[in-house]
Amino acid sequence: MPGLYVVATPIGNLGDITLRALEVLKSVDRIAAEDTRVTGQLLAALGIRKPLLSVREHNERQGAEKLIGKIAAGEAVAYVTDAGTPAISDPGALLVQAVREAGFAVRPLPGANAAVAALSAAGFPPGPWLFYGFLPPKTKARQDALRDLERMSCVLVFYEAPHRVRETLADLAGVLGGERRICIARELTKQFEEIACMRLEAAAAWLDADAYREKGEFVLMLAGAAQAAADAGEARRVLEVLLQELPVKQAAKLAAQISGEKKNLLYDMALELKGK
Predict the structure, then answer these.
(1) Which segments of 183-224 does DSSP mark as H helices, in order?
(2) How far apart are CA 251 and CA 245, in angstroms?
(3) What digits encode the pLDDT tens for the residues 156-208?
(4) CB-based contacts of 31: which residues, under 8 Å, 6+ apart?
(5) Whether this model's pTM surpasses 0.85
(6) Which of the four CATH numbers 2.40.160.10, 1.10.1040.10, 3.40.50.970, 3.40.1010.10 does domain 3-112 have?
(7) What does 111-152 look like in DSSP terms, one character per residue?
């Protein structure tokens, strides 16, 4: 059927292509792509040959005009980005808007998405989450954006590129506090996939432990302000129970092991609770 098909493609493992995506990519008249070279390799691996048209961030409006002309002539056109779901921190939104405004059908094909895949393996409590995408690349703008998010109670989800991940982790800790829980997912569905959860203050050391960890595309997931406060409250409750039976130093040490809170912080809290 004529129209635009927005097709999600694998973010790494080719086995994640859906049966419907294969069917559509084989049946459409042409395929528009963020990068025709990348998509050409994907199609070759899938055994599909179709005319390709470049529609990327810098020519999306012009590309949309060409595609609308093709659809108006009765063609079915698929749109794919380099990996994952188009228009989610990728080109595609302007194209979709233009096609819809021109009166033609836009049909989404669900599939791989790095943010959803990462969240499913992170183990955060059920509840709301905010997908932010990429933070601003410049330090001040990035820190300002984080300050706007500081009090949000939901899980925060970001994408980040390898050459900026260290700076971003430093700003996350500096603005939101090193005590927050973070889950770092990199190279999802690829050979060196890694998902690790820790306190934000430990993230830099985690990167340092393996030079390869600073490579690949990242999904960063942070506990929201409410969860961070709840974690601190639970640590205090554990400490109060232990102080009923143990000396301050031992109670603080055990409470840190149980809760994951910093031992020094709990030691100071224990002294406060004891009135010392």
Answers:
(1) 203-208
(2) 8
(3) 999 999 999 999 999 999 999 888 899 999 999 999 999 999 989 999 999 99
(4) 25, 39, 43, 50, 51, 52, 53, 77, 78, 79, 80
(5) no
(6) 3.40.1010.10
(7) ---HHHHHHHTT-PPSS-EEEEEEPPSSHHHHHHHHHHHTT-
